[in-house]
Amino acid sequence: MKTKLVIVFIIAVMACLPVKASTVDCQNLYIGRIWMEKGVGLKAVVYLNERTATSGSYWSYFTGWTAEERKEVLTLLVTAKAAGHRVNVITDNTDGCGLQASGTITNAVFLTTQP
Fold first, then answer.
1. Is the dihedral of CA 95, 98, 101, 103 positive or negative?
2. What does the alpha-carbon distance between residue 12 and residue 79 come to, in Å, rounded to a whole number?
3. Which of 14, 35, 57, 75 has the fewest CB within 10 Å, making it most exposed?
4. Beta carbons of 11 and 4 less than 8 angstroms apart
5. Mean pLDDT of 41-65
6. Do the bridges between strand 104-111 and strand 60-61 make them parallel or antiparallel, or are there none, so unpaired?
7. pLDDT recorded at residue 43
8. How many helices (H) does the chain have, and how many strands (E)?
9. Which is nearest to 74 in space by CA: 102, 37, 104, 26?
10. CA 3/CA 12 separation, integer angstroms
């Protein structure tokens, strides 16, 4: 009985631990700067490890996205930024992330399950 209680306690504690963002693996990121350009619309975004951070990843571009896709992802990005909600990202880099290297292209953005 004691063993079960200990296991339940450990699981409960682990479930309450804060989620860490990482520009190394593109998980649980906050939205930083959003770059809009005349004639292009959404050009790029900077992803942050912490909501209050003043710097984060290098710019990640939306090259190859259609105008309609840029509008849709801009809505998602602005909503996530305003709400402080985290996102997961996939880029064109060989490891699917690479935000610490300059010039990545964002291929997908997902709202996380937990803000």
1. positive
2. 30
3. 14
4. no
5. 94
6. parallel
7. 97
8. 2, 5
9. 37
10. 14
Whose tokens are 């997908």? That residue is 108
CB 42 within 8 A of CB 36: yes
Range list of β-strands (E), 49-103? 60-61, 87-91
Q: DSSP letters along 16-59, please? A: HSPPPPBTTTTBSBEEEEEEEETTTEEEEEEEESSTT-S--SPP
Which two structure tokens, joined as six digits, stand for 31?
């939205």
- Alpha carbon 104 to its chain's center: 14
Q: Which of 39, 83, 92 is nearest to 62 (CA)?
A: 92
Residues 114 and 26: their CA atoms lie apart, in Å, by 15
- Cα dist. 78→6, 7, 30, 81, 100 in Å? 42, 40, 11, 5, 22
